[in-house]
Design goal:
Elements (H helix, E strand, L loop, with lengths): L14 E11 L5 E4 L7 E3 L10 E12 L4 E6 L4 E5 L3 E5 L8
């Protein structure tokens, strides 16, 4: 997997990645994807030659953190917003704040 050392805390603006599995390719050409801890299929434009069972990586930015429920809301780069368990995060790049000058 893509696991890196994960920090104890996430911050809004952090870039994260989620691993999904292609469930099926729809007649429209979009793929229906299963994402761990997200209870609904997510559809996206698949990579070329994607087939059912292939792994895909979705990248996005953390927009909300629910520490009590241990969940993160992520705005996916390919469009859409999903809420997942923090355990679904496979990779992280911390948001760097601009220093005040």
């Amino acid at each position: 997997m893509l696991h890196l050392n994960m920090p104890g805390e996430f911050e809004v603006g952090d870039e994260v990645a989620l691993a999904g599995t292609v469930i099926t390719i729809l007649p429209s050409g979009r793929a229906r994807v299963s994402i761990p801890s997200y209870d609904h299929p997510y559809t996206l434009e698949p990579p070329p030659k994607a087939r059912a069972g292939d792994r895909v990586v979705l990248v996005g930015d953390v927009t909300r953190i629910d520490r009590g429920a241990d969940k993160l809301t992520v705005r996916i780069d390919c469009g859409g917003v999903i809420t997942v368990d923090r355990s679904a995060i496979t990779r992280l790049r911390k948001h760097r704040r601009a220093s005040a000058g």
